[in-house]
Structure formats: structure tokens, C-alpha cells
Write a structure and sequence with these properties.
mainly alpha, 434 Repressor (Amino-terminal Domain)
């Protein structure tokens, strides 16, 4: 699964609009929309912020794992 599909699904699962999420990320809604459409690559800082908002790992958002739980830190 492409990351842009996963970030859209996560937003919808958390009952957030693009406008609400863009506000949390301190960016305009059209900019966030381009990430969800796959028209722009996610900057690392935005990827990390999304993982923090959703309490998941960046690997999950990128589709590198299907386990949404973040790994346990040692």
C-alpha cells in the first residue's frame, strides 16, 4: 500500500478532516491534500508528526509494516 493511501485511511479512522489535520501540522489544507493524493512526497518532519499524532510508527505510515503499534523502545 502506498503511504499516501495509508495516511488518508489513518486520518479517516481518526475522524479528522484534511483541514483539521493540516491545522495540527501547521500547514495549509491544499498542501496536506497533495500529500494524500501522492502528488508531493512527505517531508521527514511531517511524517514524524503524523506518526506522533496517530501514535504509530513511521514504518507503518510508509507501508513497511502492517503492525500499527510502534516498536517498544529499549
Amino acid at each position: 500500500m502506498a503511504y499516501y493511501r495509508r495516511i488518508r485511511d489513518m486520518r479517516e479512522d481518526h475522524d479528522l478532516t484534511q483541514r483539521q489535520l493540516a491545522a495540527l501540522l501547521h500547514m495549509p489544507q491544499p498542501q496536506y491534500n497533495r500529500y494524500e493524493q501522492g502528488l508531493r512526497d512527505l517531508p521527514t518532519t511531517t511524517l514524524i508528526a503524523l506518526a506522533d499524532i496517530y501514535h504509530t510508527s513511521t514504518d507503518y505510515l510508509l507501508g513497511r509494516t502492517n503492525d500499527p503499534k510502534p516498536p517498544v523502545s529499549l
